[in-house]
Design brief:
Layout (H helix, E strand, L loop, with lengths): L1 E6 L4 E4 L2 E2 L4 H11 L3 E5 H6 L10 E5 L10 E4 L2 H8 L7 E5 L1 H7 L5 E7 L7 E2 L9 E6 L3 E3 L2 E10 L2
Parallel strand pairs: 1-7, 1-8, 4-5, 4-7, 5-6
Antiparallel strand pairs: 2-3, 2-9, 8-12, 10-12, 11-12
């Protein structure tokens, strides 16, 4: 499985259930990489999407403890065990974890690749992704040239779980 995340200089990912910043090139990369694939997210992450709707042309799976939650266009599961069972029908390489913080933390150990957009700025934040640079299980295997969006500098990083 894969993880896709945009983090700031402190590995922050959000504030008050919103992304820290929207970078069009990051969204384009995410669309190109995940179209036709499976994306896994928590309920609040889905609700942060435009109109709170699942992304088109993907299999959307939402993990929530809310037993009454349902949304058109997505499969809803209520536990990690139920999620693992649901994911058995898909090729692991086609599964992308989209967040938020709790879902990332619960699924990180099941993932082999992390696609990280690292923004060279520190935002006010209340949610974080585990710092892969400080995790001995992960290694940085590629880094794009520095990109810019207005005055923001960022890079696309790829981490692999060490065998």
């Amino acid at each position: 499985m894969n993880i896709m995340v945009a983090v700031d200089a402190n590995w922050a990912i959000g504030y008050q259930n919103k992304l820290l910043v929207r970078i069009p090139n990051d969204h384009k990369r995410m669309r190109e990489q995940t179209t036709g694939k499976v994306i896994v997210m928590g309920r609040r992450t889905l609700e942060s999407f435009p109109q709170g709707q699942p992304l088109k042309n993907r299999t959307n799976i939402v993990l929530t403890t809310d037993k009454n939650y349902s949304v058109n266009g997505a499969t809803v599961v209520h536990s990690i065990d139920e999620l693992k069972e649901e994911l058995k029908q898909y090729d692991s390489e086609d599964i992308y974890v989209f967040g938020g913080e709790s879902v990332y933390r619960q699924l990180l150990d099941l993932c082999d690749t992390a696609y990280v957009t690292k923004i060279n700025f520190s935002y006010q934040a209340d949610t974080y992704f585990p710092n892969l640079d400080e995790n001995d299980d992960w290694e940085l295997v590629s880094e794009s040239e520095e990109q810019t969006y207005f005055d923001l500098e960022y890079a696309f990083l790829e981490y692999k779980r060490k065998k």
